[in-house]
């Protein structure tokens, strides 16, 4: 309801002034007020954009499943990976022994449960993949920052070392190094990490060469900020997104290399279960017991594919040039 207030001295025909009631005015303001957008942190926005693609969301779910299985292996694995069931040699998937023991993915030639070994094998593959990427990334990012920012002799020296290492096939170099130092979990992480730094160094160097000429870096240099502070505060944060994408894709590569070395007998020594070692154990039984080699091979395929798809989606989300197409 509106109120009309007119003075007695108003001339005839004067316009009346209507004042809306406070309740009606409040309703009008609420109706006209725009909806506030939910503000997210940059990290939360990246997660939302990442999961917006169905394939990436499915890949993330698969990686979470594999990771949880590896972390909770003593709880979720139905058997000890080294236990042998004499009545269950080369049992096919979904089989039961005469004693009533069930083996969801079957057993191998040494009477061991494949599902339990695959769950425990994920621990080795993911540990080596993540640890070697962290080691290689740390070395490569440091050398790339030095080469890109310092330039001159440092740049030439680091890039010539990288060119020499690139001239040697990565797998051949890793094979030769493991053959010399011996197969073990620590040695495998060290070999894959030390031989895998080149890609990080080249990417970081290329971006550092561009970033060091920008106005805010030149201004920091003008006011006397030291090189270490400029690298840590101004350059490193600007190359972080590229490094996240490269590291994600490299995890898949390292998982494959670990499986290849284990298949050739140069990975973590038996009886520790590894995916590559399980494939090697079943290669002589492809015609009679296909599941012994096929199941761990499929696990490697699905895991590597999921990591690669997440890495591709992260590249689309974090790259400003591709952000409009996502």
Write up what this structure looks like.
This protein has 326 residues and is mainly alpha-helical. The chain has one domain (44-85, 102-325): Orthogonal Bundle (MetI-like fold), CATH 1.10.3720.10. The protein is built from 13 helices and 4 strands. The protein has helices spanning 22-32, 42-52, 54-71, 73-76, 114-150, 152-166, 170-181, 185-194, 198-211, 215-222, 227-263, 275-282, 291-318, and strands at residues 2-5, 17-20, 95-96, 102-103. The chain has a two-stranded antiparallel sheet. It has a two-stranded antiparallel sheet with strand order 3-4. Residues 13-18 and 25-33 have low confidence and may be disordered.
Low-confidence stretches: 13-18, 25-33
CATH superfamily, by name, is MetI-like
Across the major sheet, the strand order is: 1-2
Q: Sheet with the most strands?
A: 2 strands, antiparallel
What does the radius of gyration come to?
Answer: 31 Å
The sequence of SSEs as H and E is EEHHHHEEHHHHHHHHH
What would you say the CATH architecture is? Orthogonal Bundle
**Shape verdict:** elongated
Oligomer: single chain
Defining key terms:
326 residues; mainly alpha; MetI-like fold; two-stranded antiparallel ribbon; elongated
List the helices and strands and how they pair.
Layout: E1 2-5, E2 17-20, H1 22-32, H2 42-52, H3 54-71, H4 73-76, E3 95-96, E4 102-103, H5 114-150, H6 152-166, H7 170-181, H8 185-194, H9 198-211, H10 215-222, H11 227-263, H12 275-282, H13 291-318
Antiparallel strand pairs: 1-2, 3-4
Helix pairs in contact: 3-5, 3-13, 5-6, 5-8, 5-9, 5-11, 7-8, 9-11, 10-11, 11-12, 11-13, 12-13
């Amino acid at each position: 309801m509106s109120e009309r207030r007119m003075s007695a001295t108003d001339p005839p025909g004067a316009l009346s002034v209507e004042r809306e009631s406070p309740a009606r005015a409040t309703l009008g303001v609420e109706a006209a007020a725009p909806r506030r957008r939910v503000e997210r942190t940059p990290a939360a926005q990246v997660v939302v954009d990442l999961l917006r693609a169905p394939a990436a969301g499915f890949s993330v779910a698969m990686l979470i499943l594999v990771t949880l299985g590896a972390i909770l292996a003593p709880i979720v694995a139905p058997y000890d990976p080294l236990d042998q069931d004499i009545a269950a040699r080369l049992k096919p998937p979904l089989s039961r022994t005469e004693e009533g023991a069930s083996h969801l993915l079957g057993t191998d030639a040494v009477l061991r449960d494949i599902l339990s070994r695959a769950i425990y094998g994920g621990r080795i593959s993911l540990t080596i993949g993540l640890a070697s990427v962290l080691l290689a990334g740390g070395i490569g990012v440091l050398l790339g920052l030095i080469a890109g920012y310092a330039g001159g002799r440092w740049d030439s020296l680091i890039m010539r070392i990288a060119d020499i290492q690139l001239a040697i096939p990565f797998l051949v170099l890793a094979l030769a190094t493991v053959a010399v130092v011996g197969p073990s979990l620590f040695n495998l992480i060290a070999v894959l990490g030390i031989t895998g730094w080149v890609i990080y160094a080249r990417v970081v160097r290329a971006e550092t060469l561009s970033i060091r000429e920008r106005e805010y870096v030149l201004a920091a240099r003008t006011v006397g900020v030291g090189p270490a502070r400029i690298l840590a505060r101004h350059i490193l944060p600007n190359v972080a997104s590229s490094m996240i994408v490269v590291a994600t894709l490299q995890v898949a590569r390292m998982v494959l290399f670990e499986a290849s070395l284990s298949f050739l007998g140069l990975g973590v020594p038996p009886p520790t279960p590894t995916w590559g070692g399980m494939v090697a154990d079943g290669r002589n039984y492809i015609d009679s017991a296909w599941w012994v080699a096929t199941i761990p091979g499929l696990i490697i395929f699905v895991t590597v594919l999921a990591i690669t798809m997440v890495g591709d989606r992260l590249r689309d989300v974090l790259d400003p040039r591709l952000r409009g197409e996502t």
